[in-house]
């Protein structure tokens, strides 16, 4: 069925350069032709989450570019949004960008963990977790391919100082400190 709307790939190609110039990337595009009027949702992501002013700017730029596409017929609703906390973390860049945030993981063996995202590199997540024996904070390295699902948790209180220190320091520094 011809909708008169561009494809997901066409929207990404059209907006990708403009979003990159603003320091963001097009994370996803969802085209809902069942909605009346049809809806184009563009999900933006970057090393810092876009604030409302940035979303408004990206939305105006996207609207201008989409309005220039001659093949688009009829009305549609454009929505530019950020990833939001409810979207799962699925790639190394998502974990890097979530550094310092509390997450809940399900591993491929079915076990579940809750911890704070530390340094992520070389397809490995360093997760700050409570050590069962002494109830102190420790780093646990988890290969990303062993993570089945990961979701950021909403927090209503500040994290423990030691927990946050481990999450924000480099792994080499954490090992050096632990060895002394």
From TrEMBL:
Gene3D superfamilies: RimP-like superfamily, N-terminal. GO terms for cellular component: cytosol. Residues 89-156 form the Ribosome maturation factor RimP C-terminal domain. It is found in: Cytoplasm. Keywords: Cytoplasm, Ribosome biogenesis. Its main location: cytoplasm. It holds the Pfam family DUF150_C. Residues 20-86 form the Ribosome maturation factor RimP N-terminal domain. InterPro entries: Ribosome_maturation_RimP, RimP_C, RimP_N, RimP_N_sf. GO terms for biological process: ribosomal small subunit assembly; translation. HAMAP family: RimP. Belongs to the RimP family. Required for maturation of 30S ribosomal subunits. This is Ribosome maturation factor RimP. It comes from Mycobacterium shimoidei. The lineage of its organism: Bacteria, Bacillati, Actinomycetota, Actinomycetes, Mycobacteriales.
């Amino acid at each position: 069925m011809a909708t008169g709307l561009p494809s997901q790939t066409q929207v990404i190609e059209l907006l990708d350069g403009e979003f990159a110039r603003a320091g963001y990337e097009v994370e996803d595009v969802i085209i809902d032709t069942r909605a009346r009027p049809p809806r184009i949702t563009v999900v933006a992501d970057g090393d810092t989450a876009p604030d409302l002013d940035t979303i408004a700017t990206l939305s105006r730029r996207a609207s201008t570019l989409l309005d220039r596409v001659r093949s688009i017929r009829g009305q549609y609703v454009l929505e530019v949004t950020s990833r939001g906390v409810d979207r799962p973390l699925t790639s190394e860049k998502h974990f890097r960008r979530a550094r310092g945030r509390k997450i809940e993981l399900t591993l491929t063996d079915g076990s579940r963990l809750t911890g704070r995202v530390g340094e992520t590199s070389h397809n490995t997540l360093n997760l700050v977790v409570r050590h069962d024996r002494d109830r102190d904070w420790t780093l646990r390295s988890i290969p990303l391919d062993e993570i089945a699902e990961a979701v950021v948790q909403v927090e209503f209180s500040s994290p423990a100082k030691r927990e946050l220190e481990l999450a924000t320091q480099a792994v080499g520094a954490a090992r050096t400190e632990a060895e002394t």
